[in-house]
Amino acid sequence: MKEVINKLENFIREKNIEAEHMLRTGFWLREIYPEADEAMYVAAICHDIERCFPLREGEVKPPKTGDDSKDGEYLLWHGKRSAEFTEKLLRGYGFEDEQVMERIITLITDHSFGGSEERDLMMDADSISLLENNILLFIKEGKDKKELEEKTVSEFEKLSSGKAREFAMPFYEKLLRELRNN
Ligand SMILES: [Fe+2]
Fold first, then answer.
1. pTM listed for this prediction
2. What is the distance between the alpha carbons of residues 154 and 115, in angstroms, rounded to a whole number?
3. How far, in Å, from the CA of 114 to the mean position of ligand 1?
4. Residue range 115-174, pLDDT digits in tens
5. How far is the CA of 22 from the centre of ligand 1 (A)?
């Protein structure tokens, strides 16, 4: 599995679409949950991987508002599509453990929904990485600061454990300073 993980990490780095966000989600998963197995790690680094693949003919991306409570259809589509491309990559690398494959597919499909210990861990790692990486990029891109502040607060508040909040705190505070000061 180590070799397969290396190949996935290289694929993500080479595509360079959300690479930092996905790889750091894997990193934060291991920080908040050192017991995470390789299936969870693979799910974490591949959870948004569909964004590396353009829409295929006839494929329609459901509308996305950025507010998770309104984006159920999009989030399900996004999770399933990321699971599908992860499975393709894994099979292409010769990975054949069907039980582990099934676990990875389920974890990725459900990564935006929470509700079980593993799902919450995936969501927490995703949110910490988002606070660490993506929101700074959104600020640089000139996105609306009020909206980004709301996003920052809601991402921080939905963290499911004190440990996750502890890791996220420095990014959260830095973002709020940046978003509120000018
Ligand atoms: Fe993500």
1. 0.94
2. 17
3. 13
4. 899 999 999 999 999 999 999 999 999 999 999 999 999 999 999 999 999 999 999 999
5. 6
